[in-house]
Design goal:
The protein contains twelve helices and 19 strands. It has 411 residues and is of the alpha+beta class. The protein starts with 5 loop residues before the first strand and ends with a helix.
């Protein structure tokens, strides 16, 4: 699939002489295909001399539709089958919804190297057609009206503000959920990610966009993550051209925050982030399942601050000690070991996200870019670490463990 003799493209990238066709992995759902077609179109625009093909896969999360997501387990739920194909060279990169990508674990030889500009990360209220003339927001619904969502995060926050309403789990693709609400009349309204509605051209069904005061969004919601092999620098350089700096920095902060808290889809955790006046600001919260308790705070860090201005988290370690993947469950595994082993590498849990995964390429919670100012990425990571530490000092880790006991029976 590749050649030993690199040549230079018209864009200045080093490309392999015989490698002009690239396979893109995607889930089969309509939303996943829309997202993959978008990335394919962007790549075709940037690399007109190359061809790109989408290859579809079913994932575990797509096949199990009768169980709430937190009860299935959140590690690789929508990603494992795609990553297995990537690791065995059947495809060249994979398009994901970044919020589906684990923050603490990733197969040894994979990295997220493409994060284009984010769509609106908020959640939206979609009201059943039978009610759209009389109801415009959740405030308009009578007691015991049934609101559908697949997210504990949404349920916890909305229970707090709307205790008179009933919130129930709804699964399936966008069309299935709409049908359950409009045709089967099982729900009076549903809460969905604004980004998915917009990408699927369902903007006209949005009755109300929930502001952060009402519902903090999920980590990385609205962003896409394009995953590649971390030793495939040809593809990494190509995908890096997709990257939007603001989106990448915000997602680094959000994902680091979630990883430090050891959360996931089994814990109701919400965030809101922004870049302003050369600073990154991150707000985050952990909620209990009943909407009766929240632990919330915010942190701001200026990109011009020196590393020693951050007292809670130590400065980044000496890079000479970071040239291999560290984890707390197994010995260090080098890239050489991963390449020599034809078996799919096991997933490992990392201690920190500030490792060097290849000479000259550092990842931040598995997000990597060769061009963006590394100091900014370090500060975004520190922002997430600081905020997580602040919440832990308020008891967030204890609350998360209690929730995991309830949802899974263990943690």
């Amino acid at each position: 699939m590749s050649s030993e003799n690199p040549v230079s493209s018209e864009h200045g990238d080093s490309v392999q002489a015989k490698r002009t066709h690239f396979k893109i992995g995607s889930r089969k759902s309509k939303l996943a295909m829309v997202q993959s077609e978008y990335i394919k179109s962007r790549m075709e625009q940037m690399y007109p001399d190359f061809t790109f093909e989408i290859v579809n896969f079913d994932t575990k999360g797509d096949k199990i539709l009768n169980i709430a997501l937190p009860k299935i387990g959140d590690k690789g739920l929508f990603t494992k089958e795609l990553e297995d194909a990537l690791l065995t060279n059947r495809i060249d990169f994979v398009v994901h919804s970044l919020k589906d990508m684990p923050c603490q674990v990733l197969p040894d030889n994979l990295i997220i190297s493409g994060v284009p500009e984010r769509e609106d990360p908020s959640d939206s209220l979609v009201i059943a057609k039978r009610w759209v003339e009389t109801k415009k927001s959740l405030d308009d619904f009578e007691e015991n009206s049934i609101i559908g969502t697949s997210s504990l995060r949404r349920i916890s926050q909305l229970k707090e503000k709307y205790p008179k309403l009933k919130f129930e789990t709804i699964r399936g693709n966008l069309q299935t959920r709409m049908s359950k609400m409009d045709d089967e009349k099982k729900f009076d309204a549903i809460i969905l990610a604004t980004a998915g509605l917009k990408r699927m051209k369902y903007d006209d069904r949005i009755s109300h966009i929930l502001p952060p005061e009402t519902c903090l969004h999920a980590v990385s919601q609205g962003a896409l993550g394009v995953e590649s092999r971390r030793n495939d620098f040809e593809v990494i350089r190509m995908l890096n051209r997709l990257n939007d700096e603001e989106t990448l920095l915000r997602c680094i902060a959000e994902r680091t925050f979630l990883a430090k808290l050891e959360g996931g889809c089994s814990a109701p955790i919400g965030v809101n982030s922004c870049l302003t006046n050369n600073s990154i600001i991150l707000e985050g919260a952990v909620f209990d399942l009943e909407g009766t308790k929240r632990i919330q705070d915010r942190f701001e860090i200026n990109f011009n601050d020196k590393s020693n201005a951050c007292p809670i988290i130590p400065a980044v370690s000496d890079q000479s000690d970071l040239n291999e993947t560290k984890n707390i469950d197994s010995p260090k595994r080098s890239l050489k070991d991963s390449n020599e082993d034809n078996k799919i590498p096991k997933r490992v849990k990392v201690e920190n996200s500030d490792q060097i995964i290849e000479p000259g390429l550092r990842h931040f919670c598995f997000l990597a870019d060769l061009n963006i100012d590394e100091n900014k990425m370090i500060k975004a990571e520190l922002c997430g670490l600081h905020l997580a530490q602040k919440l832990k000092e308020k008891g967030a880790d204890l609350l998360i463990n209690e929730i995991k006991l309830i949802v899974h029976g263990s943690f």
